[in-house]
Amino acid sequence: MTKVLSVAGIDISKQFFEAGVLINGKEQLRRFAYNQEGLKALVKWLPEGAHCVMEATGPYYLRLACYLHQQGLTVSVVNPLVIKRFSQMRLLRAKTDRADAKLIARYALSEQPPLWQPPVAYQLKLQQLEALLQQLQKQHTALDNQLEAFEATGLMDKEVKELLEKTTKHLQKQIERITAKMEALTQEHHGELLDHLVSIPGIGKKTAIVLIVLSNGFKKFSNYKQLSAYIGLSPRIYESGTSVKGKAKICKMGMSSSRAMLYVCAWSACKCNKGCKELYERLLTKGKAKQVALIAVANKLLKQAFAIATNNTSYDENYLKNICF
Fold first, then answer.
1. Which pLDDT score, from 0 to 100, does residue 320 have?
2. Mean pLDDT across the stretch 31-52?
3. At 5, is the pLDDT very low, low, confident or very high (cuts 50, 70, 90)?
4. Top-level CATH class of 6-111?
5. Is the pLDDT confidence value at 59 over 60?
6. Structural contact between residues 168 and 145, judged by C-beta atoms closer than 8 angstroms
7. pTM passes above 0.90
8. DSSP string, 112-165
C-alpha cells in the first residue's frame, strides 16, 4: 500500500462519531452526529485523499464504512483488539472518544492497514441470518432448561408449561426456517464449495455454512492460521526464560459458538477422518489431555477445510498429505 500523508481515525458510537485527522503530523479533531447530515459534513471536512480507518465496533461501523467507500474514499476496518494493543504498547491511559480517534489515526499512519471492501448483498444477509440464528438458539436452549427446571420441582403450573412449550416450538420453527434460508443462499452462491467442504469426514453442512459465512467464502484470510486465530482456536504459549513454563491454551478471542461447533466436529472426526484420528491417537500416546488433543483435531479440520477451499477439490485423505501450507 502506498504511503499516505493524511489519515483519519474515526471512533464510532450509536449517536455520534469522533474523527481525528493527521495531516503531515498535525492533528485536527471534530465530532459529527451519526446521521445523514453528519456523514455529508464528514466528507466535506476530510482532506482530499485521506485514508479513513475505524474499528469493527458491532453493527455501527458498517453504515459509515459503506458511505465513505461510496464517496470514493479509501477505508480500513480493524479489529478493536489491535487498537487496544497498539495503545498498550505506547503506555497510553486516556480512554475518551477524542483520544481514541487520535489513537486510531496514529495507528493508521504507522501500520497502514489493508483496505476494506464492503460486503455484497448476499454476504451481508448470510452474516445477519447467522447472528439471528445464534440468538434464537440461545433463547431456545434457555427456555428448554427453564422448562426442565420447573418440571423437576414436581409442582409446575399447567398454563406455564403450555406457554413454554408453545414458545419453544415457535422458536424451533424459526430456527429451521432460517437454517433453510442460509442453506439455500449458500448453495446458490457457494454450491461447489459447500459440496467440497461437506466431503470432509467430520464436517457437516451446518459447520460448512458457518465457515463459509465467517470467511466470506474463504477469501477473507490468506492461510488457515488466520482463520484459526479469528475463531479463537490458535494456541497461546506462555513461557519466559527457564523458570516460567506456563500451560499452553487456546486464545479464545474469536467466535465462541463456532469454536463449540468445531469442537463437536472434532469428536466425530476422531472416528471417521483418517488424518484427524491419527493425530488424536498420536497426541494421546504422548500423554496429552483429551481436550488438548481435540483442540488440535479442530485445528486440523480447519486446515483441511482451507486446503479444500483454496484448491477447489473434494476431500481425499491421501491427497491432503501432499499439500504444503
1. 46
2. 94
3. low
4. alpha beta
5. yes
6. no
7. no
8. -PPPP-PPPHHHHHHHHHHHHHHHHHHHHHHHHHHHHHHHHTT---HHHHHHHH
- Kindly report, as residue ranges, where domains of CATH 1.10.287 are found in the chain: 121-190
Give 121-190's CATH code, choosing from 1.25.40, 1.10.260, 1.10.287, 1.10.10: 1.10.287
Distance CA 228, CA 11 (A): 28
Give per-residue pLDDT as tens, 68-116: 999 999 999 998 878 888 888 877 766 777 888 989 999 988 888 989 9
Greatest alpha-carbon pair distance for the chain in Å reads 73
* Amino acid (one-letter) located at 109: L
Packed helices 290-311 and 224-231: angle between N→C axes, nearest 10 degrees: 130
Binning pLDDT at 50, 70 and 90, where does residue 24 land?
Answer: confident
- Cell numbers 443462499 correspond to 185
Domain with CATH 3.30.420.40 in the chain: 6-111
In 3D space, the residue among 174, 176, 196 whose CA is nearest the CA of residue 187 turns out to be 196
The alpha carbon of residue 210 and the mean position of all alpha carbons in its chain are separated, in whole angstroms, by 10
Helix or strand run (H / E) with residue 245: strand 244-245
